[in-house]
Specification:
Layout lengths: L2 E4 L16 H16 L2 H6 L2 H27 L1 H37 L2 H5 L5 H28 L23 H8 L4 H12 L1 H6 L2 E7 L6 H9 L9 E8 L4 H12 L10 H12 L4 E8 L4 H10 L8 E6 L2 H7 L3 H4 L3 E3 L6 E2 L5 H12 L10 H9 L5 H13 L3 H9 E4 L6 H12 L3 H9 L9 E2 H10 L6 H13 L4 E2 L1 H6 L10 E3 L2 H11 L3 E5 L3 H6 L7 E5 L17 E5 L19 E3 L28 E3 L20 E3 L20 E3 L21 E3 L20 E3 L21 E3 L21 E3 L21 E3 L21 E3 L20 E3 L20 E3 L5 H13 L5 E5 L20 E5 L7 H5 L11 E5 L12 H6 L9 E5 L8 H4 L1 H4 L5 E5 L18 E5 L6 E2 L1 H4 L10 E5 L6 E3 L15 E7 L5 E3 L5 E7 L21 E5 L5 H4 L10 E5 L19 E5 L19 E5 L19 E5 L19 E5 L15 H4 L15 E5 L5 H5 ...
Helix pairs in contact: 1-3, 1-4, 3-4, 3-6, 4-6, 8-10, 11-12, 16-17, 16-18, 17-19, 18-20, 20-25, 22-23
Organism: Aegilops tauschii subsp. strangulata
Family: Belongs to the disease resistance NB-LRR family.
Pfam family, one: Rx_N
């Protein structure tokens, strides 16, 4: 016999829907809570222990009979209807019981946290509570007893809980987008291929305008999944622009336009933008570009609105396509009307080409179900027949098949499957009746623990997107789960059923991110309908603009409310049901809420005010939290993100149940001290509060805090001295630019797993206790530009899996102990410009990813070749020796290396470039592109499909140009790389202009970090490279027709915020480079965080209004860079610390401009013609530690003020032939540790005061023929003499090179690079050829290509 569940629309029923089904879950929760309370001390103190015990017993009895009530409900009929109403009443009483119990808990918390006198005069007066609480409990006891008697009258009997059978992979299913695609497109191969043919039909593209491809079908048939499988298919990568928008029933042009524009160009600021602004920018972004846009779930049938949508999207190039998914053919018919459709500019494809989805066959449904229900090796024989019978119940709907398949995977017995097969559900008359009935069957057999979590999702609007961690926090606040792990299991379970999905728009626009990053979740509309049916009258939507609908709402059973379209209609809060537990404000203006807004709703646990935002509205300067919020004793979750709140009330601590507090992107400057008494607070998000400067001193009292996000709190200068948060697992301090150090007790964060310190510009060292973070797994120190050293004990972080040191320019080396970190999987050392070597034992690590791109390493340790765990080894723009060694290591470890292809003529009607069509490698160099005769051959290699490609080099050899060769622009036009390309190098490009994709490079290649253009003889204008959001290194060489870099280079909103290396070489005619859009001082500084500025042979270049403030400077034959008179007025957090000048012939008045470099620590002068005395400005370098003077042939003497540079530790003088003596003032250089005198023919005697250099540890004299002896005073430097055992060690005339140094160098000295090597590096890198390493490597590349001629 079949079980039948009947849920109809009953006249006069006190509830609607299927909400009684979750009564079991509610009863279980309340019975447990009453049982716990009966044993607590509070019940004795309040003298109502008897009441609590009776209620606990009664609730346990009721919980036991719920199973019988459930069975009778499923059998339907009049009896089932009566039992259903009883279950609804029971659930309401159970909720009331929980409210009273939680209120009691809150009162006890307040009693412990507040002074008695203060409590006496508050609303929480204990005497008042002692009078009222017993009355509440007695009333509650009466209601529970009454509902129990009604249950007895129904003859409900106790049932024993039955086992659920074999449970496979219990709660471990993780919904994967790709897996979902494979399941959802079963039986849709023909439709998918048809859509792709329509997208790629070149004949149609040439003759048509913009085509709409409709996918029409009932809900749940997989329209969106089919569209997504097409969207991510490599065959459709030819479109220059791609965007995905979920439209839903609420048709909003502003929302649609914003979503498309955000997908195209994420750098455009859409805050407070108007519809006109969106239309104008969409016109700019789409003009001349072929796009593919998916409008998912389109319902709108108003022809005028649809025409305005087409007008907004009409500016794309011919061949652009719009895929529309819809349930209604009438929507497609309306799209066929209007002016643009009649002009054939923008209309649907012919009816014969439309995609109409029909139900799957039973066999196809069974295939979908098997993918979820069974593992690849499971025995299906005993369940196959029953499974096919259940597949018939799916009615051909893939969504149902997936949901049932997940339920069946948990109940792997014949009996359980038979029960599923024999259970039918009747939902009465409603839309999508059959599909919802099948989905309800899946819900009916869902795990009891997760039912309440699922039904709560009806409290969100259709098409909602929510981060997984915030959803978990809300579930926890409502008591549905106990902890974070429960929440993750629930999300995985619901994703396995397709009741939750990863947001398609976030999947499509995302780049690879950390696996632990919060997922953006959403829900299919039909599943949302199901949750709404189940929740029934427990959910309420209040539309502030429709008072009549508010009055009609049934508020008796309401527990969750949404407020929409609020615009200061204060009276709407009078309609809020007093028993609501969650309240969300959505699609409303940022207005001051009424102070008494929540005075009647004291049981709210979740309060979300983050939806107080309408796109295009003006923002008030500040608002206050309503004072009535402080009366919400049960409040556990508060989200006020993006509201301009400047402060929290001092009495905020009365919210003693607060667990989650989200105040991101507000206007806070600090927190009240009283917040430290919120002892249950576990999740605190303060990200984006740019004015926030200080945490309370007693912040450590938040002992339950697990998550703390303070990213982009750019004014925060320090953390409290006591920062011992013993439960903290996640700490994000990224973008805290002013944070100077971490507390000394930082290592007491024993449970810390994730730490992000990226862009903490002023942190120079980590505290000694840092190495006590034994459980740390993910550490991000990228762009900590002041960081100079890691603790020697760093290897004690034994659990660390990921270490990111990108762009730490002052970090000179890694500690040897790092080689002990056997759990380390990912190490990123890219753009570490000060790191010259790696530990010799680095190969002992079990790394999977090692990135040393764009660094300064001189060699690689051989042990890396033994690192068999390595799967990705990234090396670009380094020393040629390092690059070649890396290629050898890759080959030895069988890692994918660089593929080099030289174009040649095959004699078979096409060029050899087509051979790259099947190549998919991480690094690709294509040489001799000048030989390409047919541009379409370049298109045939389908670079866009090569998703593994990370580095691409394109070379034209101008010396071997072929008269029959195609234009370089035509070839480059067809070489559009895949979207995730990271490094792009173009050399020898001979055309004047660039193809369209280069002019929109920020949307085509948003992941680009390294860009190199060289030998572009005809080019006279650069694309807007400044718009590239991730660009870290830009190298331009030999582009003679570029005379000015101005506004167009930065594009719309480009600020080069991540640019760290700017290298210009042989830009002979470059006259001006603007560093503000206007070129004037009042503009925003656009290159604000440069680490290295290298200029060689740029003799005319001036930066307007001033040069970028860089940490490292290399100027070679670029005299006019410092010519601007306003440079020192620049306000910047960048502190220059290293400078090299070579071949620059400044007249005396120019040298004074160096006075602005007060923070320099290293300085070198090389081959500066005519320089007879050191510039007076150098004496201002009070922090100078290293000074190098090389090939200053006109220099005759050293200045007396040299002795004032008391911080100087290393002085090197080389090839200064006219220098005859050292000034006596040098005896004051008490910090000098190294003195080098090399090839100084004019020096003939060393002064006696040399013996007063008490810190001198190393003296190097080489090729100084006139120095025949050391002064007697050298004996005072016992550390030097002790090393030499000759009696006449002080006589050196017979020795060509003498080195005196300490017998046992200290640890710091032992780790330091050879000082002579340092001097050579300065003389070569800072001036002679700042980009020599890159040139050498590119020459090697060209040689390797030309050798194949």
């Amino acid at each position: 016999s079949e079980d039948i569940i009947v849920v109809g629309e009953r006249q006069g029923a006190s509830m609607s829907g299927f909400g009684e089904i979750i009564a079991s879950a509610v009863g279980k929760q309340i019975a447990s809570k009453l049982g716990e309370l009966a044993t607590e001390e509070a019940t004795l103190q309040w003298r109502f222990k008897d009441d609590v015990e009776v209620m606990a017993d009664k609730m346990q009895d009721l919980e036991a009979v719920l199973h019988d009530a459930d069975d009778r409900l499923r059998r339907g009929g009049r009896d089932g209807e009566v039992v259903g109403r009883w279950l609804t009443k029971f659930k309401s009483v159970a909720y009331d019981a929980e409210d009273v119990l939680d209120d009691l808990d809150a009162t006890e918390l307040l009693k412990k946290s507040q002074p008695k006198l203060k409590l006496f005069f508050s609303r929480n007066n204990q005497i008042f509570q002692r009078i009222t609480m017993p009355h509440k409990l007695k009333k509650l006891r009466g209601e529970i007893e009454k509902i129990g008697k009604e249950g007895q009258a129904l003859n409900l009997v106790r049932h024993q809980e039955q086992a659920q059978g074999s449970i496979i992979n219990n709660e471990s299913f993780v919904g994967i987008c790709d897996e979902g695609l494979r399941s959802g497109v079963v039986g849709r191969d023909m439709e998918k291929d048809k859509i792709i043919r329509l997208l790629l039909n070149k004949g149609a593209i040439a003759r048509e305008g913009i085509s709409i491809i409709p996918i029409v079908g009932l809900g749940g048939l997989g329209k969106s999944t089919l569209a997504e499988s097409v969207f991510v298919d490599k065959r459709v990568n030819d479109f220059e622009v791609r965007a995905w928008v979920h439209v839903s029933k609420e048709f909003d042009l502003r929302k649609i336009g914003s979503a498309i524009l955000k997908s195209i160009n994420s750098s455009i600021n859409l805050d407070n933008c108007s519809l006109q602004f969106l239309q104008e920018n969409l016109k700019k972004e789409l003009a001349g570009r072929r796009y593919l846009i998916v409008l998912d779930d389109l319902w709108e049938e108003d022809g005028d609105k649809l025409e305005r949508l087409k007008q907004m999207l009409q500016h794309g190039r011919k061949g652009s396509r719009v895929i529309v998914t819809t349930r209604n053919q009438s929507v497609v018919n309306k799209l066929s009307t209007g002016v643009l459709a009649h002009q054939r500019k923008f209309c649907p494809v012919p009816n014969s080409d439309q995609i109409n989805l029909f139900v799957l066959s039973t066999d196809e449904c069974w295939e979908v179900m098997k993918q979820t229900a069974f593992g690849p090796d499971d025995d299906k024989s005993d369940l196959e027949e029953i499974g096919r019978e259940i597949a018939e119940k799916c009615w051909g709907v893939p969504l149902v098949a997936i949901a049932l398949g997940q339920v069946m995977s948990e109940l792997r017995t014949v009996e359980a499957w038979q029960k599923i097969r024999d259970t039918n559900i009747d939902l009465g008359h409603r839309d999508h009746k059959k599909t919802l009935e099948r989905l309800m069957l899946s819900y009916y057999y869902m795990k009891l623990d997760f039912k309440m979590c699922f039904t709560y999702l009806a409290a969100f609007p259709k098409g909602f997107i929510i981060e997984s961690d915030r959803l978990i926090q809300q579930w926890k606040a409502l008591g549905y789960i106990h902890g974070w792990d429960d929440g993750k299991r629930c999300i995985n379970y619901l994703m396995g059923m397709s009741f939750l999905q990863i947001s398609r728009s976030s999947v499509i626009r995302s780049s690879p991110v950390h696996a632990n990053a919060p997922r953006e979740l959403t829900m299919h509309d039909l599943v949302h309908d199901l949750a709404t049916i189940i929740l029934g009258h427990e959910s309420l939507v209040l539309n502030a603009t429709e008072p009549r609908s508010r009055k009609k709402a049934n508020r008796r059973y309401c527990r969750h409310a949404q407020l929409i379209n609020y615009q200061n209609q204060y009276k709407v809060f009078n309609d809020l049901p007093g028993s609501i537990r969650s309240f969300h404000v959505r699609h409303s203006e940022k207005q001051q809420l009424s102070q008494k807004a929540f005075s009647r709703t004291k049981y709210i646990r979740v309060l979300d005010l983050s939806g107080c935002l309408v796109v295009g509205q003006s923002t008030p300067s500040s608002i206050l939290l309503p004072s009535s919020v402080l009366q919400l004793k049960l409040l556990r979750y508060l989200d006020a993100s993006s509201l301009p709140i400047t402060s929290l009330p001092e009495s905020f601590h009365t919210l003693q149940n607060m667990e989650t507090l989200i105040l991101s992107n507000c206007s806070l400057e600090t927190l009240p001290d009283s917040i430290c008494s919120l002892h249950k607070l576990s999740y605190l998000d303060l990200a984006g509060n740019a004015r926030f400067s200080k945490l309370p001193d007693n912040f450590h009292l938040l002992s339950k805090l697990i998550f703390l996000n303070m990213s982009s709190c750019s004014k925060l200068t320090k953390l409290p001295d006591n920062f011992s948060l013993e439960c903290l697992e996640h700490l994000n301090l990224s973008g805290c630019h002013e944070l100077k150090n971490l507390p000394q007790d930082f290592g007491n964060l024993q449970n810390l797993r994730f730490l992000n310190l990226s862009d903490c510009y002023k942190i120079s060292v980590l505290p000694e206790s840092f190495c006590q973070l034994k459980h740390l797994k993910d550490l991000n120190l990228s762009d900590c530009r002041a960081l100079v050293v890691l603790p020697e004990c760093f290897g004690d972080l034994s659990d660390l899996e990921s270490l990111n040191l990108t762009s730490c320019p002052r970090l000179a080396q890694l500690p040897e102990s790092i080689c002990k970190m056997t759990n380390l999987k990912c190490l990123n050392l890219s753009y570490c410009l000060g790191m010259l070597e790696l530990p010799s034992s680095l190969g002992d690590l079990n790394l999977q990813i090692l990135d040393i791109s764009a660094g300064a390493l001189r060699h690689l340790p051989g042990s890396i070749s033994k690192m068999t765990s390595l799967t990705e080894f990234v090396v670009t723009s380094g020393h040629p020796r390092v690059y070649e060694k890396a290629q050898e290591i890759k080959k030895h470890l069988n890692l994918p290396g660089r593929k080099v292809h030289r174009v040649r003529n095959t004699g078979r009607g096409h060029d050899s470039i087509v051979e790259l069509g099947d190549v998919n490698c991480p690094e690709l160099l294509i040489g001799s592109l000048q030989r390409v005769k047919r541009p379409e051959d370049a298109e045939r290699i389908k670079l866009r499909d090569k998703s593994c490609l990370r580095q691409l080099a394109l070379h034209w050899n101008q010396k071997n140009m072929n008269a029959h060769a195609s234009s370089a622009e035509y070839v480059l036009k067809r070489l559009i790389p895949a979207r995730n390309l990271e490094q792009l190098m173009i050399q020898g490009y001979s055309s004047k202009g660039f193809p369209n994709w280069m002019w929109h490079i920020s949307s085509h290649l948003p992941c680009i970090t390294y860009l190199s253009l060289s030998d572009l003889g005809a080019c006279d204008n650069l694309p807007p490279f400044g718009q590239l959001p991730n660009l870290r290194s830009l190298y331009l060489q030999k582009i003679p027709n570029i005379t000015k870099v101005g506004r167009k280079f930065y594009g719309k909103g480009g600020t080069c915020k991540k640019l760290r290396l700017l290298q210009l070489q042989s830009m002979d005619n470059l006259v001006e480079w603007r560093t503000t859009l206007s070129g004037k001082e009042d503009g925003e500084f656009l290159i604000s965080n440069l680490h290295n500025l290298e200029l060689k042979d740029c003799p005319k270049l001036k930066f307007r209004p001033y040069p970028p403030r860089s940490m490292f400077w290399c100027l070679d034959n670029s005299d006019k860079v410092l010519a601007g008179s306003t440079f020192w007025k620049l306000s910047s957090s960048i502190l220059p610390c290293r400078m090299g000048i070579k071949n620059c012939s400044f007249y005396p008045g120019k040298w004074h401009r160096l006075k602005q470099f007060l923070t320099l620590e290293e300085f070198s002068l090389t081959s500066c013609h005519g320089l007879m005395a050191l510039p007076e400005a150098i004496r201002c370098f009070t922090s100078l530690k290293k000074l190098s003077l090389t090939s200053l042939h006109w220099l005759e003497k050293m200045p007396e003020w040299l002795g004032h540079l008391t911080s100087l530790q290393v002085l090197g003088i080389k090839d200064c032939c006219n220098l005859t003596f050292l000034p006596e003032s040098m005896k004051n250089l008490t910090a000098l540790r190294v003195l080098m005198l090399l090839e100084c023919e004019g020096l003939d005697i060393l002064p006696q005061w040399l013996g007063q250099l008490s810190s001198l540890r190393e003296l190097r004299i080489r090729d100084c023929p006139n120095i025949t002896s050391l002064p007697e005073s050298i004996r005072n430097l016992t550390g030097l003499v002790r090393r030499s055992r000759r009696e006449d060690a002080y006589k050196v005339s017979h020795i060509r090179k003498v080195v005196f140094e300490l017998e046992e160098p200290n640890e710091e000295q032992g780790q330091e690079e050879s000082q002579e090597a340092w001097m050579n590096r300065l003389s070569k890198k800072y001036g002679e050829n700042p980009s020599r390493h890159r040139e050498e490597r590119e020459e090697l590349e060209l040689i390797s290509v030309q050798a194949m001629d």
